[in-house]
Give the backbone structure.
Amino acid sequence: MCKNNGVRGEYFFVQINTKINSELFTLKKKKDRVTVGFNGGVSELGRRVVSIELVRREQAQCIRVADNSSLYITNDFIVTHNTWLGCESRLVRAIAYPGYKSFIGRNELTRLMATAYITFQKVCKHHNISIDEWNLNGKYNYIEFRNGSRIDLLDLAHRPTDPMYERLGSLEYTDGGWIEEAGEVPFMAVDILRSRGGRHMNKEFNLSPDTLYTYNPNKGWVYRIYKQWKEGLMVQLEK
């Protein structure tokens, strides 16, 4: 509560941030008073990755809401999205570590291309990462970067012609990767991919194997692991 011109009430300061703040006004004196950002008056909309630094390791939980966009507000009014998070996690490291190798996997490659890959393009645009920095190899299903990094796009569906997932057995990745809608993916594929992390330039980058799983709640293998953790039956071993 405060007073404004002798009137007591609740008052709020509102800050408006646009792409070009000076366009809010026509009077020159007001244009000159506008607080501007970078590029000669263009302010920064949204958030940008400035640096990456390990702070701590702790248990994380992914959620999804019923809205068609799957967007939701988290701490500090940050709009987030599981698919956006997964793309960020791969993209940031691919840019930061030349020669880095990772993967994005889903039960069906066609659905991966219709969801995660579309979001990947949006994340690149959000961070002003030019299309000249990366390229999609549609024949062999991977994203290659100009700095030598690579992200494989994996179809993790069970195939009668490859019941033991031998197609995954010779892959080598730096820290692992990201499995989207992990609850739909057979556990054998997940288990094999876990063994493929930590095999590519880990000493050079000082990165430990670490795979991200995003999913909707279900009663499959994901739920069984969660239940074990919740009941205190799962023990995490220190390295």
User: Anything to note?
Assistant: DSSP finds seven helices and ten strands in the chain. The two ends are 54 Å apart (CA to CA). Residues 82-96 form the longest helix (15 residues). The CA atoms of residues 88 and 145 lie 15 Å apart.
